[in-house]
Amino acid sequence: MQPTDINNPAYFHKVVDCQKGCPAHTDVPGYIRLIAQGRFTDAYLLNRSTNVFPGILGRVCDRPCEPACRRGRIDEKPVAICRLKRVAADLSGDVADRLPKAPDQKNGKRVAMVGAGCASLAVANDLMPLGYEVVIYEAQDTPGGLMRMNIPSFRLPGEVLDEEIAMIVDMGVDLRLGTKVESMQSLLDEGYDAVFIGSGAPKGKNLDIPGRYDDPDRIHIGIDWLESIAFDHTDSIGENVLIIGVGNTAMDCCRSSLRLGAKSVKVMARKPRSFFKASEWELEDAEEENVEIIVNHSPKNFVIEGGKLVGMTFELMEYDLDDDGRIRDQRVTGETVIPCDDVVLAIGQDNAFPWIERDIGIEFDKWDVPVVDPVTYESDRKGVFFGGDAAFGPKNIIWAVEHGHQAAISIHKHCHGEDVADRLADGMHLSSVKMGIHEWAYSNYFDAAERRLVPHLSLKERFKRLDLEVELGFDAEVAATEVERCLNCDIQTVFTASLCIECDACIDVCPVKCLTMTANGDEADLRTRLTAPAENPEQDLYVSESLPQTARVMVKDEDVCVHCGLCAERCPTAAWDMQKFTLAVPYAIDEKTPPDPAQIAKKWGT
Amino acid sequence: MSFITKPAAVHPRSPKNELGLTIRDYEGGMSTLCAGCGHDSVTGAIVQSVFELSIPPHRMAKLSGIGCSSKTPAYFVRQSHGFNTVHGRMPSVATGANAANSDLWYIGVSGDGDTLSIGLGQFCHAIRRNLNMLYIIENNGVYGLTKGQFSASADLGSKAKKGAENQQPPIDPCRTAISMGAGFVARSFSGDKQQLVPLIKAGLSHKGFAVIDVISPCVTFNDHEGSTKSYEYTRQHFHPALHADYVRPSEEIRTQYNEGEAMPVTLHDGSKIVLRKVAGEYDPTDRASVYSHLERSQQAGEIVTGLLYYNDGLKEMHDVTNVVDQPLSTIDHSVLCPGNDALQALQNVWR
Ligand SMILES: Cc1cc2nc3c(=O)[nH]c(=O)nc-3n(C[C@H](O)[C@H](O)[C@H](O)COP(=O)(O)OP(=O)(O)OC[C@H]3O[C@@H](n4cnc5c(N)ncnc54)[C@H](O)[C@@H]3O)c2cc1C
Ligand SMILES: Cc1ncc(C[n+]2csc(CCOP(=O)(O)OP(=O)(O)O)c2C)c(N)n1
Ligand code: SF4
Ligand code: SF4
Ligand code: SF4
Ligand SMILES: [Mg+2]
Known about the structure:
The complex is a heterodimer.
Chain A: H1 9-15, H2 17-21, H3 28-36, H4 40-51, H5 54-60, H6 65-68, H7 71-75, H8 81-91, E1 110-114, H9 118-127, E2 133-137, H10 146-149, H11 158-169, E3 174-176, H12 184-189, E4 194-197, E5 203-204, E6 219-221, H13 222-230, E7 240-244, H14 248-259, E8 264-268, H15 280-288, E9 292-294, E10 297-305, E11 308-321, E12 327-339, E13 342-345, E14 349-350, E15 384-386, H16 389-392, H17 397-415, E16 427-432, E17 434-436, E18 439-440, H18 459-462, H19 476-483, E19 491-495, H20 505-509, E20 515-518, H21 523-528, E21 541-546, E22 553-557, H22 566-570, E23 576-584, H23 597-604
Parallel strand pairs in A: 1-2, 1-4, 2-3, 4-15, 6-13, 7-8, 7-13, 8-9
Antiparallel strand pairs in A: 5-14, 10-11, 11-12, 16-23, 17-18, 19-23, 20-22, 21-22
Chain B: H1 38-52, E1 60-64, H2 68-71, E2 81-84, H3 90-100, E3 105-111, H4 112-117, H5 120-129, E4 133-139, E5 142-143, E6 149-150, H6 173-180, E7 184-189, H7 193-205, E8 209-215, H8 231-237, E9 238-240, E10 242-247, E11 262-266, E12 272-277, H9 287-299, E13 303-310, H10 317-321, H11 333-336, H12 340-350
Parallel strand pairs in B: 1-2, 1-3, 3-4, 4-8, 7-8, 9-13
Antiparallel strand pairs in B: 5-6, 7-13, 10-12, 11-12
The structure holds flavin-adenine dinucleotide, thiamine diphosphate, iron/sulfur cluster (SF4) (3 copies) and magnesium ion.
């Protein structure tokens, strides 16, 4: 293999699994160290600098960082990254003075946004400090989008939303509530310099099977039903409820049902558990509340008696799975009727843009979804950008935020007559954390503690009101244990081949057998010849230049390195060093002066 | 020396041996030796060998004298028996332990000073006794622990760190062992685990005294230019004579050997050592020719390595003294020492 180019930011970025897993590249180990130092406000602001909504995301983020977390490969349970984000938000001091501000002197550019969901808000967050005049049109009477309308308040309290939305709107955003955009053409006619469409994916999927329209008041579309609960239009449901579908919407629907008076709630899944779309933790939370999840039941028809919904017929499914767990064959083995009073359909969402005229240069594909560039977020019509669920269909908040950052860069470039595709590259900075002999500027002690569990409101208490938050968050003490589980994957092992005397010390001491000195070869071959076979192809091999004495190479399998620093500690020549890696991701604000990675590394001092 | 506690984390796909243990279960305390010391690599090789042999940790006894090298038993197989004796006296204590309990795996770790200077007499007599143990010399040409004076293995002309040249001829532990009648004599290098690990496994499995002279550089006092025991010098002058593959009784010989190139030797426990020629004609069973080969190559400045001499036809200490098979330590005291009446009766036989 060729020697690894560690000056390419992509290499070490990938080693920081959580940061790589986060669509917005949140500096997770950085903020975790700030929490460890009791610097909660800094931890909050470091989060906010990338993910914009730490308090919201610390509760309801889809947390792709956690399945990515290296700790999960060591002892199965990842660091409770999301919960720690909430700690930063809960324990943060007043941040008002340290938030970005809009300058008094505007730049003369006007940008319109459709929808006040997280996507538009993230764009506004990035553009306001640059002096833009931002107008957000929102159909509802409150901002927040699905975060407000669909994510139940027992998971995400309204005050948390209010606070973090205010941080953006208070920069001077012209937020026009209760103002639905009915025509894209007329919006364009107002002469904005750019338009961002963050209108979400508002259409809940229907299930058109016999009986669907015979008792419509008892058969609900999940996201519409959740919205009507959020806006107090719905406050009760029958005793026996069936939820169709087993994604995250279904989880919110079943738990909301329990709070509206349902006695028995069943979530009906067509396939086995390994096919569920809902996150493991959402399933756990629902099952803790005694929701029954029934697999291998495919809806056939609604059972109506005397014009009233009394149940649903399901086909009983049987599946043959192949070795990879994919369905090879399926068959119907029978039928069953399950009685119920209400049915909630939670089988997905679609985009819908009835208000965008199809002849104004915005291209739609064959599924009637707008054609959007995945890098610039620009549509086929220059100056019109999409982001969040409106861009590529339903995703989640953190993706919407990242779309927002990228769209903000594009909007800024567009408004200044620059090529939106010509974007700043990621930057990086490395600095040694060696403080002296046997002294390192990070806590490299490996804490074998198990993942801490978040305390929940008791089952007796939590159903009393719809908006009682179930998760109580970590207190500072529990957080202090959880932070030590983080392996500091941004403290990188950096190798200098010319210094190595091939003494084997690093190889012998490495607790997880990451290191090998061997003859070079191609990757597939090298992977089989290492101290511990490198069986995780997702994780890179770090290959050195030829070693001075034997011309072998030093190979590190990044997979399960615990970043303990022992290799550097035991190296007599400092051929291995531990260096803090800082990724510098460009934002719209950096268009004025490109970011200095060294400065960013210093700023947070983690 | 390091103060970081070695993480308890284990590679999630760590192989397990026949006892269900991972290699990490064979580790010891964190080394207090200088970073980069060859001795730590030898420790690594011992850990790997004992793990691969599936030796139950509590069935092993590790003994040593005094020196940096002699400290190393603290760094491997935490759960085994250990005795850190006085300088150069490890063979006596090993003899006593082995006499009392023949049923343990004995591994002695010593230095060139501990073995060839103060302990030379003990070393020679342990060989004559053919004590059933593996004796590893971590040979760095200096007294590391006392700050780098030349030891009895320092080569003529080798330079000390401050430039002084060694004027006294070296004692070669391998030739000494061969002349004393050892049945398993090997040399290796701390920086070559591929060679060292099979030798340690074979040495542990050999019945009788097995000695491995491991060139193990002292990074602090003997790794400079002009030293003949540095990493770089050793790598430049390293001449493998034979390669020894070790094959456990439960394993099959998997490597393909060309006709006439390999020579399998079966050990008492059914395991095999497959000796593979690396360069030229070399017969590790011909004592006289081995001895003169070593003599010649030393003159030529070559460090000949591998399993240098092998003879499995020798009686070990317990065979010579005709002791019962059962370890004495497990025999009831009343049987071992039947009392005065029995003694009188015995003496009466010769009256
Ligand atoms: C039940 C449910 C639970 C979820 N739970 C989570 C979760 O726990 N974690 C997570 O990360 N994600 C979750 N999601 C997904 C997440 O809510 C969305 O991905 C995210 O809100 C998308 O943000 P957005 O800004 O693109 O759009 P939205 O949040 O949908 O906001 C769009 C806004 O645009 C407004 N709008 C639409 N059309 C117009 C118009 N013509 N004129 C004016 N205004 C308009 C809407 O009123 C709305 O306020 C969940 C989704 C659902 C349905
Ligand atoms: C009876 C006695 N004499 C002298 C010493 C001092 N001493 C301690 S270690 C050592 C030499 C050790 O050299 P070696 O066996 O080569 O070990 P190394 O440290 O090089 O590994 C000496 C002379 C001692 N401890 N005891
Ligand atoms: S930091 Fe070094 S010693 Fe520690 S796990 Fe990673 S490679 Fe191994
Ligand atoms: S410890 Fe340092 S000098 Fe020794 S092999 Fe490792 S990198 Fe090379
Ligand atoms: S002094 Fe030499 S022999 Fe002793 S620990 Fe240090 S490097 Fe090893
Ligand atoms: Mg020595």
